[in-house]
Each structure stands twice: as structure tokens, then as C-alpha cells.
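Feature request, filed as a ticket because there's no other form

It would be nice if the structure record came with a short human-readable summary line next to the C-alpha cells. Right now we just get the raw output. Example of a typical job, pasted below so the devs can see what we mean:
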Amino acid sequence: MSKDLTTGGIAATIFELAWPTALAMSLQTAFRIADGVFVGMIGHKAFAAVTVIFPIFFLMLGFASMIGVGCTSLIARCIGGLRREQAVSAAGHGFALAALFGVSFVALGLTFQRALYRLMGIEETLMPMVVEYGTWLFLWAPFVFVGEAAGSILRAEGDMKTPLKIMAAAVVLNAVLDPLLIFGIGPFPRLELTGAALATFLARVFGCVLIMEHVLRGRTGVQPRFRGFRPRARTLGSILWVGLPASINHVIMGLTGMVFIWILTRFGAEAVAAYGALARLNGIVILPCLGLGTAVLAIVGQCVGAELFGRAEKVTWRAVLYAVVVMEGMGLLFFLTPGLWPRIFVREPDVVRYAAVGLRVTSLSYMFMGASIVVAAAFQGAGHGLPALVVTLLRLVIIAVPAAYVLSVAVGLTGFWIALAAASVAAGVVSAVWFKAGTWKRPSRL
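Raw output as currently delivered:
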């Protein structure tokens, strides 16, 4: 059943929604750490191959987030405004979009992946490993899209615990299969990098089946209807109005990630592996902020639907405060002990040295990163996806990419890390100022 997020204590409501999401993502990240350790044991080239695929995975998440964010925002606003039939229609449209994008991603990915890797400047000695892992990535895409569509219903209703349970089950399966398939333990064949990809594929399918079973058996307040379904341009437009900017955010991150790897290839596979280690560590750091952002999106969505703008604003700034405190603490820890953490994934001295420098530099920008994540979610919940997109363009396209190229040429690899940190600081400041201006209170397209 749907929860009323327009009443109750602010701190209690935020944490009630945030902790299950943060814990679910923590479980997934804990597995990724273990997965990274296992892949790193194969060798730093295998780790570099997975790093190459990471931006493409971000592209896939970008299109999936278009469905997830757009549907969550629309369904939450419909629930807050007591428009139940519109919420049901939005859920059905979400599944239609998921099927379309899932199949398209598989077809295009398998057809053009080699050309894409060459465009990224991947050396031929690394190409077989990249293709090996990338093929499985494209095959699990439909399950990611459908799972995101189902999850949007639960998030909009304020049910964060069911996705946590499903994520936990999928992570456990992935964690069990990973060493068995990578190293060939017992009766299982030794598949190495293919084993890591196959384990993730099977876990994704398992998680998708579980969440679809939950939705289709009538355990949610909003029930999608497939019989006699007809797409409506207005509903699709409402989803895309919020979801497309969020999608473009991820697409930009994925594309700029490819550019970053192109820049780093000048410094060798060790620099690419260091970037991969840093990306995984940053993924750990932002987990609380992602949980806070998910909570803020749902709460702000229902509050805006009920025209409770004051509560929406208070919730956002309180969540920003929590994010800044957590991120500042993690940033201080990483700044003081930068050489310790990359060793979780890699042991080669050059890779550890490169990653340690990057961690010390980028940790200075963590609190700004946290603020921008939470504020972006607030804009999306209010039905205004454009500000988050503009801030991402500012951070990555206008600042990070040009600065990373110029500074890496002028200063070396340290210049690359400085560019990333400066871009995060700018994004945090601009996000906060823009939200304070109050443009999100204007009516959005519904």
C-alpha cells in the first residue's frame, strides 16, 4: 500500500525511506568490491577491461533511470494529488518503455561494441577481454530496464524495504556464483572474466523475476494494467519530461567516462586501472547520498503533488545537511589514508600510487558531490528534471573534460584528478544556489 509522505517528522521520514535504499546499494557495492577483488586476482588487465565497460554500464543505467526517475516522480505526484488512475497509467507506460529500450540496447550493443571500443582507443591486446565482458553486459540489459520500471512503483509508494530484500537476495546469489565461476571451484568450469559477467547476469535475471512477481501478484497499491494497453502521448511526455534529463545525466556520465579513459590511455593500462579503483571507491562513498536522494525524490514528489512546498524545501535542506556531514567525514578519512584503500582492488605499485594521488585530490570535493546528488533528486521529485541536467553538463562537459585534457597534458596525471575535483565543487555550489532560487515550485508538465 502507498505511504503518505506529506506528514510526519522530517528526519524520521527521511531516514525511514533512505536507510533501506542505502543498505540495498551497500549490499550491491559490497559485492562489487568482492567482484573487483576477484577480477583483480586475474590481473590488472582484466581489471582494466572491466573499467572500460563501466562507462557503457553507466549509459545503460542512464536510459533505465529515464524510466525509473520519470515514473517514480509522476506516480508519486499522482499519489500525493489523489489521482490513482493516472498513477496506474504511468506504471503501464513505464513497462512499455522498459521493453522498448531493453531490446534496443541488446541489438545495438552486440552489433557495434567492437567499433565503440576502438573509438575509445582500447589497445588490441585488451580487446578480447573487453568484448568478453561487454557481451554479457548487453545481454542483461532488458532485465535491468524491466526491474527499474517495477521498482519505480515501489519507490513512489514509499516502499523501500521490498527492493532491499530483493537486492539482498540477488547479491547473495551473485556473491556465491562469482568465485565458483571465476576460479572453477568444485564442478564449475574456470571461466575467469566470463565467469564474473555470467554470475552478474544470472543475479540480474533473478532479481528482475522477484520484483516482477511482487508487482504482478497485486502486492502494490498501484497496479499496472497490460490488457488493452494503449500508449498516451501525454503520459509518455510526462515521464520523459522528468526522466529524459535524468537519463541524459547518466548518458553524459557514460560518454565522458569514455573520454576520460581515452585521456588516461596515454598513461597506460595502469592509469586506467587506477581510475577504475577510484570509481569503485567513490561508488562506496556516495551510497548514503543515493539513499537520501531516493528518499527526497519520493517525499518531494508527494509534497509537490499536495502543494506542500514548505515541507518539500525543509526535507531537501535537511537531507543536504546529512549528505554534507557524511561526505566530509569520508573525505577526511580518504585524504589522510589515500594509499590504503586502492589496495582493496589492485596491488601493482604503479596502480596504487596513481590511485592514491587521485583519492587524496578528489576527496576534497566530496561534500559538494553529496549536496549536488540530493538537490538533483529534489528537482526530479518536483517534476523539474532540467536543472539536474544543466548541472551535469556544467560539471562534466564544460569543466571536467576540457580541464582533464589540458591539465593532464600540462601537469600529468595529477592534473586529471584536479579537474575532476574542481568540477564537483562547481556542481555542488550551482545546485544549491539554483534550488534556493525556488524555480522548482512552478507547475511542471504532468
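Something like this underneath would help us a lot:
The mean pLDDT is 86.
The longest helix spans residues 44-80.
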